[in-house]
From TrEMBL:
Catalyzes the hydrolytic deamination of adenosine and 2-deoxyadenosine. The gene is add. The lineage of its organism: Bacteria, Bacillati, Actinomycetota, Actinomycetes, Propionibacteriales. It holds the Pfam family A_deaminase. Keywords: Hydrolase, Metal-binding, Nucleotide metabolism, Zinc. This is Adenosine deaminase.
Length: 374
């Protein structure tokens, strides 16, 4: 799809346009002020003493995450996970997450976290999921229909609890959990380490995404899809390693890249996060430009709003600035994401027809009849 510079599209238009978020970590999206308050409450020592200055703490997270490596980026989560060990803290963080997403114009979100990381003060896995769901329910009720939110349960790929977490996700499938994921350091921890969990989920007709193709290349993506059966790819940005662009501009897709495009496998791209971990050198050079031109099923996501100092509005706006995208492209990303959500088909369709298309109508004119099929 060619970029159509859109001088008429303002940042405020992007803020107000409906947006869909499939890849956002609960423990990567706390308000800095909440980290400060909770750390004081539980006596967690923060790595910097900002003297009550929440903005300074926010800058510390962004600077520390701006590390050029996924492993160092992940070290910052010690300080968010540490303050999310009680039911009250989890509920608060989950409720504020919904409030922040509503303020950002997000109409549908799947928010993930790893329940196994929240057991240090004695909560059970079930109590963790219940506490998060309570916060989401409170946030959604206060938003009076402006947002739909689901949980994704993540298992940490270096650990050995994926089967237990997969079972937990299935137990909660009708109470707010829409899917499963694995996350954490990618190099050295291939998806097939957790094959039994993925096979179990497939037998249960459940949905899952896998962080793959972020800090490691095509073998990780290949395993995630062809061994584990992932519905979507968390990041998946390294699929460009299987795409050759010749000097004359002609493009050749390798077998894996062709498969991903042909099967419309959704890529949960997170531009700002990729720049911080070194998966891309800048937003302007991010492969999202090429992959969008080639019509892969691209979705735009935040990954970790705290560590990247970002939001859906910011991610979308950075693409408007870098690639000259207009409302038509933003609507395409949004409909792509809604079509790829782990929500029943009829509910996805209702959000596309009743919320997303009307929300963009004022910006790009009425959606074409085949708008959802682009
Ligand atoms: O982008 C990521 N890649 C791999 N792992 C990640 C990423 N962002 C967050 N995580 C990890 C750190 C969190 O503690 C965990 C669960 O949300 O997932
Ligand atoms: Zn992630």
């Amino acid at each position: 799809m060619s970029a159509t510079p859109s001088p008429d599209l303002s940042r405020d238009d992007v803020l107000r346009a409906p947006k869909v978020l499939l890849h956002d970590h609960l423990d990567g999206g706390l308000r800095p002020s909440t980290v400060l308050e909770l750390a004081r409450e539980v006596g967690h020592e923060l790595p910097t003493d900002p003297d009550g200055d929440a903005a300074a703490l926010g800058r510390w997270f962004a600077d520390a995450a701006d590390s050029g490596s996924l492993e160092r980026y992940l070290e910052t989560f010690t300080h968010t996970v540490a303050v999310m060990q009680t039911a009250d803290a989890l509920t608060r963080v989950a409720r504020e997450c919904v409030e922040d997403l509503v303020a950002d114009g997000v109409v549908y979100a799947e928010v993930r976290y790893a329940p196994e990381q929240h057991l240090e003060d004695g909560l059970s896995l079930d109590e963790v999921v219940a506490a998060v769901q309570r916060g989401f329910d409170e946030g959604v009720a206060a938003a009076e229909g402006r947002i739909v939110v689901r949980q994704l349960l993540t298992a940490m790929r270096h650990a050995a609890r994926s089967m237990e977490i997969a079972e937990l996700a299935v137990q909660w499938r009708d109470r707010g959990v829409a899917g499963f994921d694995i996350a954490g350091a990618e190099a050295g921890y291939p998806p097939t380490r957790h094959l039994d969990a993925f096979e179990y989920l497939q037998r249960e007709n459940f949905h899952f995404t896998i962080h793959a193709g972020e800090a490691f290349g095509t073998p990780s993506i290949w395993e995630a899809l062809q061994w584990c059966g992932a519905d979507r790819l968390g990041h998946g940005v390294r699929i460009v390693d299987d795409i050759t662009v010749a000097e004359d501009g002609s493009v050749e897709l390798g077998r894996l890249a062709a498969y991903v495009r042909d099967k419309r496998i959704p890529l949960e791209l997170c531009p700002a996060s990729n720049v911080q971990t070194g998966a891309a050198t800048s937003v302007a050079e991010h492969p999202i430009g090429l992959l969008t031109d080639l019509r892969f099923r691209i979705t735009v996501n935040t990954d970790n709003r705290l560590m990247s100092g970002t939001s859906m509005t910011e991610e979308m706006w950075s693409l408007v600035e870098a690639f000259g995208y207009g409302a038509a492209e933003l609507r395409w990303f949004t409909i792509n994401a809604m079509k790829s959500a782990f929500l029943p088909f009829d509910e996805r369709l209702a959000l596309i027809d009743e919320v997303i298309k009307p929300g963009y109508a004022g910006l790009v004119g009425p959606a074409p009849a085949d708008g959802a099929a682009r």
